[in-house]
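Key idea: predict the complex, not the pieces.
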Amino acid sequence: MKVPMTDTQHHAVGDKPETDGAQSEETVLVADDVSHTYGDLSVLEEVSVSLAAGEVVALVGPNGSGKTTLLRVLSGLLTPTAGEISYRGPERNRERGYLPQQPAFRPGFSARETLAFYTSLVDGDPDELLDRVGLGDAGDRTVETLSGGMTRLLGIAQATVGDPPVLLFDEPGSGLDPGMRRQTWAVVGERAAAGAAVLLSTHDTLLAEQCADRVLLLGDGQVQADGSPAALTDEYDRDSLQSVFEAAVGGESGPVGSMGDST
Amino acid sequence: MSGEARQAVQAVLVRELLTVARSRAYLGLVAGVSLVAAGVLAAGGGVEVGYVPAAIDLLLPFELLVPAVAVALGYRTITDDADRGELDVLETYPVPPWAYVVGVYAGRAIAMVGALGVPLALAGLYLSTQSPPDPTTLATHSGVDSPVLFVRFVGLTLLYGLVALALALAVSALAWSRRTAIVLAILLLGSVAIGIDLLVLRGFGAGWVADQQLTTALAASPASAYRGLVFETVLYVAFDSESGYAAPAASVAGLLAWLVAGLGLTVAGVTRRN
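Result:
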């Protein structure tokens, strides 16, 4: 696992934190030749992915490449039209945590009450969750008074309720300022260090290169490349993940892809 | 019911109750129902006579008001959860669709009982402070009078409300946007209040429904079933000769069928979204 730590943990971006070790190579989620179509539109085509405990995987691809659909299929929200998803992690009453691309919560409730609702369904301490994402001082604010970034952090806290072994985040860093983005990656690192497998979609290839153990490049609904950032740059003989991205999936400016439902 | 499912029902129920309790619109709803009830009773004159005359005065307005209250309380509940993506998120928790629906329904049902029951209970309390009715005026409002009959009217009104609420939740679960939820809610209101009655009467006029089948056929309409039950068990309870205006057993079966259908459609709608 390779993630930046919070300032209080005195690690520089890119440092490798301690992990639980024993579980780090355990596969917890497998997608086997998964395809998904919306009517006649094929969005995912025979995608195979596996996630290991303690691993941070960045899902990178142009808009419309099927990232959101893949995350929704992996989280169990969409049934694949072909192929299968198998969860192989430890038995929990919540196996997969999911952060939607645009998290939203029932108005009229404070951030703490919102998390109290979710923790009442499984387990957990709302205040601990708020502290986890840096919202400890905003617990009494109603969700409609939170900024977009704070709402996203609350969504991340929600996704981690019950400590699910698999975390699926749809663009957790989108629209966040650098501080909040660092906070997001810190949470990702902490969860991975605790043994969770984290798959997150992002357009930030620089952070993905710095922070992810593995990068999945998705293009036209198919996995175009899969490997560690270093392995990918070596394989494509490029000097950065952004350059690999452009070579593998045509990430230069151009027409927006037509696949996928929102990414 | 498993422990997890019970936990889920309870959590969702509490959230619905808190949502309603914090809503100014709900207080407005209770105030509105109270004003309508007070206005109807004052204008109808039944309140000065007794419990049954008061129920007679309230019956027709409440046939329309109850579905309106149910729609107001339920038509957007599930649509809004879906729009916010909360239904997706809840699917990653051990919350089966039926447990979510039961929790939402129970929470909103308690709110419904409050919105209808409080004004009617206040009316009943007021009636209890009035002097006993004059026998001659009582005769014009059909016979004996008793607080039990008014309580029975309140009970039937709440049953009608719970059925209408189940249908309103079904609309909320089946609508794919707030706009369609509004359109479907208006259609539901029209159908429950008068639409199905008109359909049955049209069938009667066209000869599809025979004379002897009419009361049973009318029990298929929630409003007619409610009206029929009030007629048979509240208004004409004291008179052997005054009966047969409705089919009580069929009316109860009709209301229960709508209740089950409403909740079933709601569960199906939530499952389909998942």
